[in-house]
Amino acid sequence: MSAAPAVEITSLVKRYDAVTAVDGLSLRVAAGTITAVLGPNGAGKTTTLEVCEGFRRPDAGTVRVLGLDPWRDGAELRPRVGVMLQEGAGFYPGARPEELLTHLARLHATPLDVPMLMVRLGLDRLGGKDREGRRGRGGTPLRRLSGGERQRVALAAALVGRPELVFLDEPTAGLDPQGRRDTWQLLDELRAAGVTVVLTTHLIDEAERLADHVVIIDAGRVLTEGTPQELISGVSDDVIRFGGPPRLDVGSLLAALPDNAVVREVAPGSYEVTATVDPRLLATLTSWCAANDILAEGLQVGHRSLEDVYLELIGAGRTAP
């Protein structure tokens, strides 16, 4: 018998007046895994997490988190779950990181060691003095920290109680490349320790790098889900990318290529040809470019990525996250 899921959502509906933010969404998160939820702004990602966290009551459907109803059983569930809100919201701006984390640790039975956690996330290096005149050690008020520093504080706050399950809403937003890498390593360590992680992100490479399971949603519904490799292998694997003048006649190019080919101008002057790539296809493409006096700049042959899958599902008319 398979283990019980850490999160199970069935036909979830959440409305705000006339707007349906989540429309019949179903999702299952296996324990001890990292699940990434992708989708454009307004897709329903944050609302879904807020229902799972017990901050919002569903209008229809069922939600179970660690086997409990997050709305009715919040008092029992909260000690077992860590929450990082979008952009690190929810804390008093005058609070100092070390004081905040020490306070939160005292609310839990077996918290993580606060100084260790601060060192692990680089919070011990924050400037300023605390009330005892100590420099560093997270003595700077939150309102004086950068966006990336506040993100690290919010992540530490979600983890300090040693949760079984963590909900992270865009955990690396505003972080520099090193901060992103540090966070990724920490999330890998959490998974290895058996902690379940559910995160939303606008960074598709982050989802591809971290997640055991990826869910792509739009308009409050699941479009597709699976492991990153399953999603990538579910579409044509080969793609040719090249640059040229904007607004080329892609219809003319498409007519010259095999029937299974797809041609897109993914950005002004940036083109993709999706098909089974072989020498004949490459020759046809370069011949068409030569006949139309086009220099195919930076021509590359590669494989489909999770970003390619995402863009195809969301549609060329939507903005990528």
Automatic annotation (TrEMBL):
<dbReference type="GO" id="GO:0005524">
    <property type="term" value="F:ATP binding"/>
</dbReference>
<feature type="domain" description="ABC transporter">
    <location>
        <begin position="7"/>
        <end position="244"/>
    </location>
</feature>
<protein>
    <submittedName>
        <fullName>ABC-2 type transport system ATP-binding protein</fullName>
    </submittedName>
</protein>
<dbReference type="InterPro" id="IPR050763">
    <property type="entry name" value="ABC_transporter_ATP-binding"/>
</dbReference>
<dbReference type="GO" id="GO:0046677">
    <property type="term" value="P:response to antibiotic"/>
</dbReference>
<keyword id="KW-0472">Membrane</keyword>
<keyword id="KW-0067">ATP-binding</keyword>
<keyword id="KW-0046">Antibiotic resistance</keyword>
<keyword id="KW-1278">Translocase</keyword>
<dbReference type="InterPro" id="IPR027417">
    <property type="entry name" value="P-loop_NTPase"/>
</dbReference>
<keyword id="KW-0813">Transport</keyword>
<dbReference type="InterPro" id="IPR003439">
    <property type="entry name" value="ABC_transporter-like_ATP-bd"/>
</dbReference>
<dbReference type="GO" id="GO:0016887">
    <property type="term" value="F:ATP hydrolysis activity"/>
</dbReference>
<keyword id="KW-0547">Nucleotide-binding</keyword>
<dbReference type="InterPro" id="IPR003593">
    <property type="entry name" value="AAA+_ATPase"/>
</dbReference>
<dbReference type="Pfam" id="PF00005">
    <property type="entry name" value="ABC_tran"/>
</dbReference>
<keyword id="KW-1003">Cell membrane</keyword>
<dbReference type="GO" id="GO:0005886">
    <property type="term" value="C:plasma membrane"/>
</dbReference>
<dbReference type="InterPro" id="IPR017871">
    <property type="entry name" value="ABC_transporter-like_CS"/>
</dbReference>
